[in-house]
Specification:
With 234 residues, the chain is α/β, with parallel strands linked by helices. It has one domain: Aldolase class I (TIM Barrel). The chain has eight helices and twelve strands. The protein has helices at 17-26, 46-53, 71-81, 97-103, 119-127, 157-166, 182-189, 208-220; strands spanning 2-3, 8-11, 30-34, 61-66, 85-88, 108-114, 133-137, 171-173, 193-196, 201-202, 205-206, 225-226. Helix 2 (46-53) links the parallel strand 3 and strand 4 (61-66). Helix 3 (71-81) runs parallel beside helix 4 (97-103). Residues 223-234 have low confidence and may be disordered.
Length: 234
């Protein structure tokens, strides 16, 4: 189904209860809470994630960003943090997405695809059958110190659009989005949702003025996006 509407916005790298409240006040549909990562900004403890998630209204998605690769470990982490969505930032090495969903009914499972080339389109198409949403980012799992997000870089949006056109679940676009370029991103990709971290921060802190500019740019970008029946906590 195709229709005109404003994309959902997920504010990532939330670091405190106050930042969560500010993001929701400005219009965020979802919040990203970053657990241990090999690199990148916004990492907080699982204890802090649980504390923040407990304060967020149920209608707002709380995404646990995890670098864990074994399903049993991810289940244990989510049950401690009690978010309503899991964002898997790396490949699973033990267990499957189905195992994860069976163990955590009602918890949305979102798989990150790091867009590095045409092979990313094939990867997204394979994974989309098993998850509730795909999130496209600009990391690289093949470098010496893995980049699993928060790079502040954009990637090739023509590949992002190709992925959006070949899957039937919600697609989030991340990677280097700012108030200045998000309108173009909306037009070129037509994603269900947008994910932003550094583009709405100043000196690492969430910036209310940048947030407002970002949301204004999203609202003002006339566009057509893909609405799907996929289930997602966002």
């Amino acid at each position: 189904m195709r229709a005109t509407r404003t994309p959902r916005v997920k504010i990532c790298c939330i670091g405190s209860i106050d930042e969560a409240a500010l993001a929701v006040e400005c219009g965020a549909s979802a919040l990203g809470l970053v657990s241990h990562m090999p690199s990148g900004p916004g990492v907080i403890s699982d204890e802090c994630i649980a504390e923040i998630a407990a304060t967020v209204p149920p209608a707002i998605g709380t995404f646990l960003l995890t670098s864990r690769q074994q399903v049993a470990d991810i289940i244990e982490q989510q049950r401690f943090c009690r978010t309503n969505a899991i964002q898997i930032c790396d490949h699973l090495t033990l267990g499957t997405h189905r195992d994860l969903k069976d163990a955590l009914p009602g918890i949305a499972v979102v798989q990150v695809i790091h867009v590095t080339g045409p092979e990313s389109v094939e990867e997204a198409a394979r994974v989309a059958t098993y998850v509730d949403a795909i999130l496209l980012d600009s990391g690289n799992q093949k470098v010496a110190v893995k980049e699993l997000g928060g790079t502040g870089r954009t990637h090739d949006w023509t590949l992002s659009r190709a992925i959006r056109e070949c899957i039937r679940i919600p697609l989030f676009l991340a990677g280097g989005l700012t108030p200045e370029n998000v309108g173009q991103a909306v037009e070129e990709v037509g994603a269900f949702g947008l994910d932003v971290c550094s583009g709405v921060r100043t000196d690492g802190k969430l910036d209310a003025a940048k947030l407002k500019r970002f949301f204004s740019a999203v609202r003002n970008a006339g566009h057509t996006v893909s609405l799907t029946a996929g289930r997602c906590a966002c």
